[in-house]
Write a structure and sequence with these properties.
Helix content: 10-25%
Number of domains: 1
Number of strands: 4
């Protein structure tokens, strides 16, 4: 698939680090599966992965976590 940002590169399956911030909470999720552009590094998450990433972020916010660094929970 062609990259939606740079339009020059093609995307391939890979893993990325996603950082979420809301109010006083920062969540860093490592090893998140994504389609990653070989040219610019931009990535796209599938709908299922995006839902899980957001759920992990919401859980941290609800718990009042200030900073959380974790591996993506499949």
């Amino acid at each position: 698939m062609n990259c939606s940002l740079c339009r020059n590169g093609t995307t391939k399956p890979g893993q990325v680090t996603v950082t979420l911030e809301r109010d006083n909470t920062t969540v860093v999720l490592k090893a998140v599966p994504a389609e990653v552009c070989e040219n610019c590094g931009e990535y796209d998450l599938s709908a299922e992965v995006a839902e899980r990433v957001l759920a992990q972020g919401e859980k941290a916010v609800a718990a009042g976590v200030e900073v959380e660094i974790a591996r993506y929970a499949a």
